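seq/struct pair 1
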Amino acid sequence: SRRKIQLTEAGADILVDAKKIAAVYKHLLESAATHSGRTEGVLSVASIPVMAHYNITGLIADFQNAYPDIRLEISEMEGIDILTRLKEQSFDFAFMRIEKLDKGFDSIPLFEDEMAVVVSKEHPLADRKQLSLSELSGENFMLLNKYTLLYDMSLQACKSCGFTPNVTYTGTRMENILELVAKNQGLSLMMKHAVTYARNENIRIIPLEAPVRSTIGLVKVKHKPLSGFARTFWGFVAKRGQT
């Protein structure tokens, strides 16, 4: 088109190899720096947009305070894109949901959360202590968009209860969805701790009778050689995951 430039098929093939070369070169420089006694380093980390909800921000701050010469470059993105970027070696690590990882990745579990139903305080179900997903088959659902792992989890959970949810809204920002839910425009499925963090007084958070759990963790490609800086970060997070 006149307004867009995109790679040719040949360019796309070359880009894959170029990313690998760049990653190997970065590792070479980091290894050389480690063996030469230099302490400065840069690590690239991807994260799904829940760092504050699960105190990942606190973990990052603690690491930077402990190792001020190792700089973390954090990129926020949706979970569905992260594994591809890790395989391409665009990032050293990622904070993300870990239950659907394949054998090509290693992970350190950090925080477990569980799915809950979020409704307006005016909703007929607002006073319930627990809910079965099957009770919601006639409701309008408002979910985080299909580029999030939570979207797939929500659809699969509903389908396992015998129905496909009527999704009337998807978005990228949790607070927008919660405001629409608070105005009784539909209900949502979200992680309990993340919604609690939002402190919206006009919604109710109702646990599921059959819990659907998710764990946030630090992820890396299995068997990928780590620089000294990367080993330091992995070890630091591993200790925090054990506490």
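seq/struct pair 2
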Amino acid sequence: MFIETLINPVLLFPLESWWSGGEMVFLFLAFVVSFITVTNLAMVKLLGIYNKEHRCLFTLVILFVFFNTNIYNEIFYWFVGSSYLMALTLGIITIGLTIKLFFDEKMSWVIVLSVSGAVACNFFQAAILPGMVYIVLWCWNSIKNHRFLWKKTIPFWFMFTSGLIAVGAPGNYVRHAHMDSSVNIGKACIDATRMMMIILKHLLQQPLVIALLIFCVYIGIRYTKKRINGRVLLLTFFLSMLTLLLNSFPIALGYGGISYMPNRIYFLLDSTALIGLSVTGICLGRYVKSQSWYKECNSVYLELMMAGSVCLLLYSTEVYNHNINNLPWFQTLQYTKEVKQLHDSWIECLVTIRDAEEDTVEVVMDQGTDSSSILALPRISDQENEWVNLAVADFFGKKSVIVRIREE
């Protein structure tokens, strides 16, 4: 995060420079590419799916569902621009390196994994997922080899120590002091459980997410080689839910409750939940594959049943008819003109503040420029003591900045 701040184009180029947007596009693409790479690696090493076309199809379905389920309007401006997505990307890369360490049996990965894991887990809200994956793979390989693989625990201790440093950072307690008078571990556990249930309920109400789970079950039946028993299936589901719960805990603790959760937090928790549900769906397919009644079924019936289930689901929910206005890709196209107008209005406002000769600046803007259903606005208000106003004033070297909305 320090490195990203030092090379941030916002500090190096004028306000209107496109370099800032270019940097955020690059970071977001890095996240998508790392996600695709690790997904393919997991399918080869963990599931034994070697067919490239099958892996591409599976990855495409996962990305399509994830990016068409919710709109996260804080991600590009906050999650990406504030280095959070860089930490999450490093967490995904750490998962990929963990898979290579345990399946390629090359101890040279230990050093690289120790560094990437320490950096990724310093952002503790994204540290749970790579840490859980590491623990599970270490336990599984230790059991398979009938001995504890002590040397391969080295990266985990770097990850764990880095996470503790992040949790103990003074800034966490300063922010919490503004929201609650005391740290209540018991209440945070309850809030984390409630938060987990809210995330699962919301996702499982989305037709595309249910279609993804059906597809994951199909992948587990048709394209994985190894079968599993019921205990492994239950353990997989338990670990997936435990990861989501542990990811929710520091958020519940830091915000002092779940009365308000920023949109970027849902991005993080939805990512964790979808990964866990997808893995559980694949394991369910592998479990079905091991059942005697499945062996007697004609494979053609499986394709017909799965495809029919998805078509019936989408038709019954009318996801591409009456509900099309709620799909992120449709809203993105629908609000393109609004985004352009709001962008131009706020850039003009910022330029006015920058070029003003007086130290006390007041800008009047038109109705409708103070809210957006898809865009994260600068949030400069008519209260000069608000932290956003103070930050903008300090950035442009002004005494105070106020933005008022013109009354009709």
